[in-house]
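I am writing to request your help with a piece of structural work I have in hand. I am sending you one protein, given as its amino acid sequence and as whole-number tokens for its backbone shapes. Kindly check, if you would, that the fold set down in the tokens agrees with what the sequence suggests. You will find the record immediately after this paragraph:
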Amino acid sequence: MVCPHSLRGLNATLAVEAGATCSLVARALGHGSDVVTRRHYIAASALESARSARVASALLGTADLTGLISTLRNLPAEQLDTVCSAVGYRR
């Protein structure tokens, strides 16, 4: 049996996987901030995939330089190290 409340998590995860921002999903769920949404509703793997997709998009030229810098600054240290290593940059 699936409870209706669990469908909120599925909806949030699918929205992020489709490209919606966490803050947009939080607003749609009626949350004041995306902290609760990230912690309880969006699957961690979806957040990781969304971050990776934003970086890939920025690196492939579909985002502006400001967007790329912002995306890179918001990456967890481990992911940023991976990106830097992949492009031959040492931090």
User: Anything to note?
Assistant: The radius of gyration is 15 Å. The chain has two domains: 1-42, 44-91.
